[in-house]
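The protein record filed here:
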Amino acid sequence: MATIEAWVAPAAKSSLVRQKVELGPLGDEEVEVEVEHCGLCHSDLSIRNNDWGFSQFPAVLGHEAVGRVVEVGRAAKGLTVGQRVGVGWTAGSCMHCRQCMSGNHHLCPQSTFTIVGHKGAFASRVRAHWGWAVPLPEKINVAEAGPLLCGGMTVFNPLAMYAKPTSRVGIVGIGGLGHMAVKFAAAYGCEVTAFTSSESKFDEARKFGAHRVVSSRNSDAIKELAGVFDLLLVTVNVPLDWDALIASLAPNGRLHVVGFVLEPIPLAVIPLIMGQRSFSGSPIGSPVGIGTMLEFAARHNITPQTEHFPMRRINEAFERLEAGKARYRIVLDVDF
């Protein structure tokens, strides 16, 4: 019976408290990871606040964990004690359904979310199925790698599926997700346009690799880009001028949403049909996809822009994130 130190959310919208937590016996196909760093993602905030309606309390949050394997289940494969790995949004999947057998493990209907009904990584240790503990490349910046495991993969996945180096790509929202999307798309060779509602981010967006920056509040400026984009990646969950954005797609262009938009999106169907355009969305990605993303990030020296807090200041970090002050990702450094 393993006992760990963890920061626990006792109830919705509550402050986190430090407690000892029992993990129980290690599963045959699980590995246990000693956490070194863990990103604080907006999804942690949403689960803490029960914004999506499926949170389970008490909750140990944290799903962008980097650390070393300290114990390996007797049926776990491919990992060794001492190996540095990352654990993201998913801690396990069934490994036998059609989705898992097709390589789409992240779409498994029986997947285990790391922070829902499972003890997450705002803790001294976290567990995951061996397939979801993804080895880190040697050249990756370990202290900054956590946000890549969820936020980074969320934006890398549609770029890998739908973009080419010759693509004209628009990134809507330059925040925790969007700034990484700009970096990935630019490194891939795409022509990148960043859309942001904050003029204070214009220069930063260019430094991240954007060739052009447009105000997402300026419908006239968006309309001037009619027919331009092969892929438009929406990373925010705020009201937008959807008609203008759809019109900015080139023929065969795609509007792809990864921001958790809770309100219905009004779709102009005729422009989609007449331009043979597509509308789609996606969650994170498979373990192989995460590994590919990490290798790409290491090769191109792509890291998120981060602010670091010791984990003992976790509630302060949550307050900063909830106030919209994080620029652009927060990483908690374990100090148990």
The longest strand covers residues 30-40. The chain has two domains: 2-150+285-333, 152-281. The first helix runs from residue 42 to 48.
